[in-house]
Amino acid sequence: MKATHHAFHLAARAHQPENTVIDLGPVRVGGKDLLIIAGPCAVETEEQIRTLAKNANRAGAHVLRGGLFKPRTSPYSFQGLGMEGLDMFVDAARTNNLLTITEVLDPAHLETLHDRIDLFQVGSRNMQNFPLLRQLGKLDKPILLKRGLSATIEELLSAAEYILLEGNANVILCERGIRTFQNDLRFTPDISAIPLIHRISHLPVILDPSHSVGDRETVLPIARAAVAAGADGIMVEFHPHPDEALSDGSQSLDPAAFMQLVKDIRVVARAVGRRVAG
Amino acid sequence: MKATHHAFHLAARAHQPENTVIDLGPVRVGGKDLLIIAGPCAVETEEQIRTLAKNANRAGAHVLRGGLFKPRTSPYSFQGLGMEGLDMFVDAARTNNLLTITEVLDPAHLETLHDRIDLFQVGSRNMQNFPLLRQLGKLDKPILLKRGLSATIEELLSAAEYILLEGNANVILCERGIRTFQNDLRFTPDISAIPLIHRISHLPVILDPSHSVGDRETVLPIARAAVAAGADGIMVEFHPHPDEALSDGSQSLDPAAFMQLVKDIRVVARAVGRRVAG
Amino acid sequence: MKATHHAFHLAARAHQPENTVIDLGPVRVGGKDLLIIAGPCAVETEEQIRTLAKNANRAGAHVLRGGLFKPRTSPYSFQGLGMEGLDMFVDAARTNNLLTITEVLDPAHLETLHDRIDLFQVGSRNMQNFPLLRQLGKLDKPILLKRGLSATIEELLSAAEYILLEGNANVILCERGIRTFQNDLRFTPDISAIPLIHRISHLPVILDPSHSVGDRETVLPIARAAVAAGADGIMVEFHPHPDEALSDGSQSLDPAAFMQLVKDIRVVARAVGRRVAG
Amino acid sequence: MKATHHAFHLAARAHQPENTVIDLGPVRVGGKDLLIIAGPCAVETEEQIRTLAKNANRAGAHVLRGGLFKPRTSPYSFQGLGMEGLDMFVDAARTNNLLTITEVLDPAHLETLHDRIDLFQVGSRNMQNFPLLRQLGKLDKPILLKRGLSATIEELLSAAEYILLEGNANVILCERGIRTFQNDLRFTPDISAIPLIHRISHLPVILDPSHSVGDRETVLPIARAAVAAGADGIMVEFHPHPDEALSDGSQSLDPAAFMQLVKDIRVVARAVGRRVAG
């Protein structure tokens, strides 16, 4: 990448040499700690989300992820419970000492969600939805910004700039696989994006191994690889009964596999001078 | 592509064997006529848009394209005149017997734009902005839906399905180049998408050669290629003084080159049994 | 592409402003004429190749293509008849006034093939097989150099440079589809490569629509598109009974479809100031 | 990937459930040990290769890599010393207790090289050079087969099958970056290929981080990531004075950085139950 970027400025390490560190309470993202976000693709039932939250907390996760509004390729796929799932999602998290993150598709939902949700996620389809980014830039909550399927690093950091420019400095970037010719896995996790982003930006960056590969068995080695490459955390899908999930079951870990993943990550984290808090 | 698609249904040729034909008055899109849309990347000044509209009409264009709200990778790039450009844009078109098309980024703008604009464009960054697609599905105006940079044909047709499902049957698809390893040109125009879409869908499909290649000199041969492959039209950028354009000047044609392009297209159209009306 | 290329020199239009024109007798490649090469993926039987040659000549082809040694992804796929197919291939062509082209995998075969074959083809897997390119550079026969699946234009022209540098000026380039995320068709035909190559090199460039798309129905529109974009010819697979072909049957035209293709190409060629000789 | 593969059989884990382990003496590749190959892109001078060999051995490398015949995109780039470099290369390695590996471009070189070289490398440009693969299948030396820039895993394993089928069971696969739209780094290292290959094949797989990223600073994190993902080793470029290297200097480590890399890898290896022998 060229030495100077006219496309972004606030997001550049040249502008701010020290890492942005976002204090979430149990974990300081961008510091020594690794952030662990876990949860189902979509909130489905009270029982599902409660079981997950309990397991997530036990395994060592810090944030419960739960899709309320799901952006789906086809209008005929399950679109999420919407606001009906909000209470059960937040209650399950609170009861188990977990923070909450959910994806926002529509700025109109922010008013209702704002007081209940701790972090907001921008999905890869919306990475360049600039009106949405600007709205999120006005909030006082951290934003997890996922890289688009074919976004360059410059485009990702420029999208972050739209948020930063409105005054919200708490942006966490998320690599989630890029679209390449390779079609054995759903996408190609771009592990090289992690050190590259760290070099040119001060923002923390985590990896979503579940969407990157779309395949349960490959999630663990890719999560370990991301941590070894310097990722500031992991966002992973799990489900009490992955094969019954209403969406993305094939890439979801069951609770035992998720326990194993956190265990693996703890060991690799130590090897590279990081740690999993809690 | 697999014979059956669960992702879309209304957009499939299996559902509607005959072509969707959209009657715009001077041109019936999806029939024998080719649709020619031309105009600047962004509406800049009254003089610029008036000169363009006059030249566009003379050369044989049917629709004047003009960006009011420009989605730009960087927040520091020119973002368009916004609603301030609306009157000059519409007046320039009306005076020169041209229909109008502009890109919508935000459903909140639709109320103001609705009565002034003839066709609405969804840009490639918003191809999967589902709340926006649903809003556009409720309108009685034709929608030009641009393919995302790395969208598959199934994803494009599924995005169209979101519009169709709300009741708006007048969707025109637009190929605008895909992101590949090739980096001599800005994108790789996927000419093969044109016959492929025609085979599996009844919706018309046009090509935007300007954004596909990002390079003035390659626009003409690619426009001819698209027509030879069966495209239902062309959307092309031009500018009275391309080198002074506030955005995308390097890919804009000057009025003389645009005249040549329409002339070339007329001849190729005849060779494949189509015609440029007017 | 950068203005100066250190990677190639003889292949550059800056070095030789006028087109390289290769006189094959019935057709001058790189001039006004379009070159039509047709034939089966592999020579299979005497009857097959004779029937094809007769049909190819009738339809207007100039060169008979026939694979003797087939490079196949798997060692368990049909590898071609080898030298056993040579006589039947050459006889079929001669009897029908066609020139011959075959792919060379191994420089060791050149001695036997040299006096019988009119043009030699380098397949995309061997585009950067430099010892092979150097051998072919010493011959007095035209070389058809196919672009690698993920080769840039600079890499293709640099590969041509290896041939030119040994003294053989008669190189014809061939676009045959690039590997992208798109997987509805086998590859993505890069039509934009045609005008791009013409701008920076004086060498003729043709398109292989059959391998580009791997799908019979899409071959015709893509062949027309290539001619409209300025291609100097077409290489197309056909077979008397495509569904019984030992390799690549799904992309082969039957004789009637091939007749239609040449007819279509004649019309488009005229529209862009070219012609199909014969 | 589909459950059954007709393209390869001997290379499949379904055919041989236990890992292939290749005993190189100091290290058993495919077992618990990690293989470390290091050396310059090209052998340049006696002093260069001797210094490197001494440093490589000290840092913990097992095999000295040295290009004699370099496949270069442009015929005007340095093509390697050829056979003139052989003695200095082999002597430097032997003196420092290192095994030797070099790339073969031409089967004609094998006779001279066979008794001096311990492992033969097939470069990514030659992954589907089937006559070369068949020749190497007849040798009694291990073969390092590099993945092509845009080769699928099926194509890589099918290429390995050509070697295995001739009787040589000692094939080591090597991921070296794939070509994608991402152009901040030279290629995109496909870390996900490592667990995927391990699942469907019994052959060992290593990573070349230097060619994958083409950028010194990113080599270390990517090497650590590969080991965390389960790679059986690393092949890395280093040079006593990277900025004076005749080829690929920008991606070469200097001796101190290489020491650090091996140190890092030792720690990550332990975290995932592997070790660096020696």
Structure overview:
The structure is a homotetramer. Chain A is an alpha/beta fold and about 280 residues long. Chain A is built from 9 helices and 11 strands. In chain A, the strands form 2 sheets. In chain A, strands 3, 4, 5, 6, 7, 8, 9, 10 and 11 form a 9-stranded parallel β-sheet that branches. Chain A has a two-stranded antiparallel sheet with strand order 1-2. In chain A, helix 1 packs parallel to helix 9 (about 255-270) and helix 4 packs across helix 5. The radius of gyration of chain A is 17 Å and the shape is globular. The relative contact order of chain A is 0.17. The mean pLDDT of chain A is about 95. The interface of A and D includes residues 184, 190, 195, 218 and 228 of A.
Give the topology:
The structure is a homotetramer of 278-residue chains.
Chain A: E1 22-23, E2 28-29, E3 33-39, H1 46-59, E4 63-65, H2 86-95, E5 99-103, H3 110-114, E6 119-122, H4 130-136, E7 143-146, H5 153-165, E8 171-175, H6 193-200, E9 205-207, H7 209-213, H8 216-228, E10 233-237, H9 255-271, E11 275-276
Parallel strand pairs in A: 3-4, 3-10, 3-11, 4-5, 5-6, 6-7, 7-8, 8-9
Antiparallel strand pairs in A: 1-2
Helix pairs in contact in A: 1-2, 1-9, 4-5, 8-9
